[in-house]
Amino acid sequence: MRTSLAGLIVLLSISMTAKSQMKVGFEVNFIEPQAHYVEMEMNISGLTKDFVDVKMPVWAPGSYLVREFAKNVEGFSATANDKPVKFEKVRKNTWRIYSAKAKSVKIKYRVYAFEVSVRTSFVDASHAFLSSTGIFMYPDGMLNLPNTVKVNPFKGWEKVSTGLEPVSGKPFTYTAANFDILFDSPIEVGNQDVFEFTASGVKHEVAMYGGGNYDKEKLKIDMAKIVDEGTAIYGENPNKHYTFIVHNFATGGGGLEHLNSTVLGASRDKYADQKGYKDFLNLVAHEYYHLWNVKRLRPVALGPFDYDNENYTTNLWVAEGFTSYYENKLTYRSGFFTIEETAQALATAISNVVNTPGSRVQSASESSYDAWIKGYRPNENSNNSTISYYSKGEVVGMLMDIEIAHATKGAKSLDDVMKAMYQEYYKKLGRGYTDAEFKAMVEEISGISFTDFWAKYVNGTDVVEYKKYFGYAGINVVDENEGKSIPYLGVASKKVEGNMIVTAVSRNSAAWVGGLNVNDQVITVDGVPVEVAIEKMPVVTTKNVGDVITVTIRRDGLVRDISLTLKANPNVKLVTTVNENATDAEKAVRAVWLSGK
User: Fold this and answer.
1) pTM of the entire structure?
2) How many CB atoms neighbour CB 100 within 10 A?
3) Which conformational region is residue 420 in: left (phi greater than 0), alpha (psi within -120 to 50 degrees), or beta?
4) Which of 93, 116, 277, 381 could serve as 70's disulfide partner, Cβ 3.0–4.6 Å?
5) Is 542 helix (H, G, I), strand (E, B) or coil?
6) Is 495 strand, coil or helix?
7) DSSP assignment, residue 135?
8) What pLDDT does residue 269 have?
9) Closest CA to 297 of 234, 367, 375
10) Could you say which residues of the chain have pLDDT below 70?
């Protein structure tokens, strides 16, 4: 045993030494940005084998869908000592280069980049946004290798914005300790408007592309407040520097978190609008809170990453849903919203979940696990069969927060759980947590069992007891639809080339039971030509529950009549008010719930 073990140690030592001597460097060029191409050069040195496999990730962490980034690669070639060497594609995202015992190889390839989103690359004559998982390849089995990236901006482009560490004395050259960091560092190249602010001792760079009516000085102050409030929860800000890459379009939205940066989509003309500006601050709060929740404190399945396959977890309701919840707390604590506005926003979030038929079919944990096959691949029936882990997780976060505050009489909150989890699993153990470990920490902090709560709201599909939980915090909530008998078809529609087309049918509604289908063209309702959305037609709104209406449709070119018996609208419309006569116990819960003190 000793001899075998010693031999194994020697072999491992040799393998590790070989890897440590390998170096990877990239050079990024733009020859035809107007045609949406980026030119890549990858240099690998220190090779010892007869061949090396290089791979392109198939997905981007934070966006749980296999996107097949290799589909955008073309013009792949490889040389050693300036001479072409044989290569072949051995897997959908893997190229094998037969280096013929050469110590180094140079690989060139082009990437077509023309998809506008926060998770995919886009290049045109005005700028380049490089989402790293779809741009950079890596040597198979060597994700831990350090690497360098030199960016050569296109003529007229003068700036590069990224969270990567700059190499001193070398313009537009950056280094990453490993490929996980490189893949977690998007790059913006062009003439973006750049400004900076410092908050929680960390320098923050904001790179604005696309123009807009934003006020830089106001943004510096307001974004800094969000940074400070997030840092206050965890007691530390883990970054030396942080980069916001903001893409301003005519209409834009969404964000994607990274280790020390984020990419945000925004509408360029909404900054001067009060609602639009607050929506942007909510987005900033969401993505910045990810610094702690998911980028460091994470489900055990989300790191180290497998870039070839799906990485399944049942805990996206925490990783993303709680982040959606905390954006409310951060913007409230930053002073952008009143307690009344925040309570109403959360009530609306509950309404959205309750009014989604899929919330009675799919649980929060199932939604998380099925993100790869359902969450990012919605169809016409998704609203009936699924629930977003964002929206359900936001609601679960609120309920859990108030439950903890109630159980501890205002002494503790979900803040204490998140901070304790961060310290235990990220700082101390250096790994992700399991669902059981998260539940155990909630029970430790609260001092009560959460088994029933988990069964109802995490692994189950129980209807949210919103009156109970809002009541714990001294918030009154009423359903304005309660007791009303409002006729309801359960159908959504829109005009397409002058025709009214059914776009959705709600489970168990009159349309569902009667057989109205998505893609049906609705011609008349009780003989009245359809000019507006079906649910808004007077011939529907003036009827009573139980009345029968006749809908004439065209389906596959054939005209037919469908009889529908109107049902009562099952949806809730929650409205909240702050109870000025709340008990001291309720006020204590409310204080720690929203203010953290």
Assistant:
1) 0.94
2) 13
3) alpha
4) 93
5) coil
6) strand
7) T
8) 96
9) 234
10) 1-20
